[in-house]
């Protein structure tokens, strides 16, 4: 909508997800959990686009992405940026 305000946290999350998706797509190596990372990044992109930003779900997706990509050092900066974007939404609620 013209003139509508976008929450800067949502914009940051969209940007971090998009950047990491591009980096992952360009990464030539194959690793076992690549599809997990791709699926969770797609889920994060969908949540950000829909405005469905439940902190516990964001953090779950972040953990899955980090676990899937964790050992690929070339993608480490992108994972850090994603974590920082998710952190802006606050701590995960305690159960």
UniProtKB/TrEMBL annotation:
Lineage: superkingdom: Bacteria
Protein name per Swiss-Prot or TrEMBL: DUF5955 family protein
Biological source species: Streptomyces heliomycini
């Amino acid at each position: 909508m013209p003139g509508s305000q976008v929450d800067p946290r949502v914009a940051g999350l969209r940007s971090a997800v998009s950047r990491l998706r591009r980096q992952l797509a360009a990464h030539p190596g194959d690793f076992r959990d690549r599809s997990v990372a791709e699926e969770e990044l797609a889920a994060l992109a969908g949540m950000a686009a829909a405005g469905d930003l439940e902190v516990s779900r964001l953090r779950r997706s972040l953990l899955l992405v980090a676990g899937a990509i964790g050992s690929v050092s070339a993608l480490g900066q992108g994972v850090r940026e994603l974590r920082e974007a998710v952190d802006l939404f606050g701590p995960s609620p305690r159960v």
